């Protein structure tokens, strides 16, 4: 069983080394749509894969970090990176280029890390990320699966190398959220009083 949750944000980037001249030489933005697909082989006490309301917590805050931010590849020209950090309060530094393909890997990876660090309380089963689809435009999207996240040729992903600016962090509900994630401190979902015995 799959469920799908849609997130939206605006983000600016340059995609180095791509074929399109406009994309690789000019800062430009997209209105992104991200579809997070979760799967499980059993349902929770609410007979759901995973309550959509639970996706409004840490995962939403992490995905929202990319909104009205500029994303750059950590290997880009140091002068460009310095300018991004100087002139944009909201920025995200990535170990990979901010293409739609890599965004789909990064969001898959981040959501997967959050789910692994979450203690569920309502009888959820083996909930995991099945896929992430990132729509960069109305007509073009990239979709990643588990094997793409582990594919080293596509670039290694790690929490330490995904860095959020101070301004981004200050806007999180829990400003320690990312440090907790990096340090393996668990997030606890709310307890649920059952209204109908099962
Ligand atoms: Zn672009």
Describe this structure in words.
The chain is α/β, with parallel strands linked by helices and 198 residues long. Helices cover 27% and strands 26% of the residues. The protein is built from seven helices and nine strands, in the order βαβαβαβαβββαβααβ. The chain has a seven-stranded mixed sheet with strand order 7-6-2-1-3-4-8, sandwiched between helices. Strands 5-9 form a two-stranded parallel sheet. Helix 2 (58-64) runs antiparallel to helix 4. The model has no long low-confidence stretch (mean pLDDT 97). The structure holds zinc ion. Residues 13, 15, 23, 28, 30 line the site of zinc ion. Its EC number is 4.1.2.50. Pfam families: PTPS (PF01242). This is 6-carboxy-5,6,7,8-tetrahydropterin synthase. It is an enzyme of class 4 (lyase).
């Amino acid at each position: 069983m799959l469920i799908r949750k849609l997130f939206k944000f605006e983000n600016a980037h340059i995609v180095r080394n791509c074929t399109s001249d406009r994309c690789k030489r000019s800062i430009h933005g997209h209105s992104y749509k991200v579809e997070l697909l979760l799967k499980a082989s059993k349902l929770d006490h609410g007979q759901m894969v995973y309550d959509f309301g639970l996706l409004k917590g840490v995962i939403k805050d992490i995905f929202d970090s990319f909104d009205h931010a500029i994303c750059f590849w950590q290997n880009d020209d140091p002068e460009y990176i310095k300018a991004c950090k100087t002139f944009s309060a909201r920025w995200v530094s990535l170990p990979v280029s901010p293409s739609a393909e890599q965004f789909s890997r990064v969001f898959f990876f981040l959501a997967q890390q959050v789910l692994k660090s979450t203690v569920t309380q309502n009888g959820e089963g083996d909930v995991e990320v099945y896929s992430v689809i990132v729509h960069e435009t109305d007509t073009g999207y990239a979709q990643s699966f588990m094997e793409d996240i582990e594919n080293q040729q596509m670039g290694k992903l790690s929490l330490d190398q995904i860095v959020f600016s101070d301004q981004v962090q200050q806007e999180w509900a829990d400003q320690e959220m990312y440090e907790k994630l990096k340090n393996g401190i668990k997030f606890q979902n709310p307890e649920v009083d059952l209204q109908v015995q099962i």
